[in-house]
Amino acid sequence: MASLALLLVLVVIALWLYLYLKSLEKPYAELKGYRVATMQSFNRFLRRGGNRARVGQLTRFLQEEGVGEVTAVHNLLRQGTDWLDIGEPPFAIPPATSGAT
Fold this sequence. Notes:
mainly alpha
């Protein structure tokens, strides 16, 4: 009986530890009930592929057009609030051309 109780306590501790560690690695912060990607998530996004160079190009373009100081570029690249639900990354870079003819 004692071994069963000990096993149950260990399972509860393991579950608590798992959930605690999982909560520490959230890629978002709660803001007025919405999940907003953190700057830490943005920095991870920049480290993937050629994202840092592409964000740099976008930043230069915005500055050349005189709107570079309106808001931080990471605010423009956010995917909205449902990115976790649909399995998308928290940020996306728009195409360099609009595709319109």
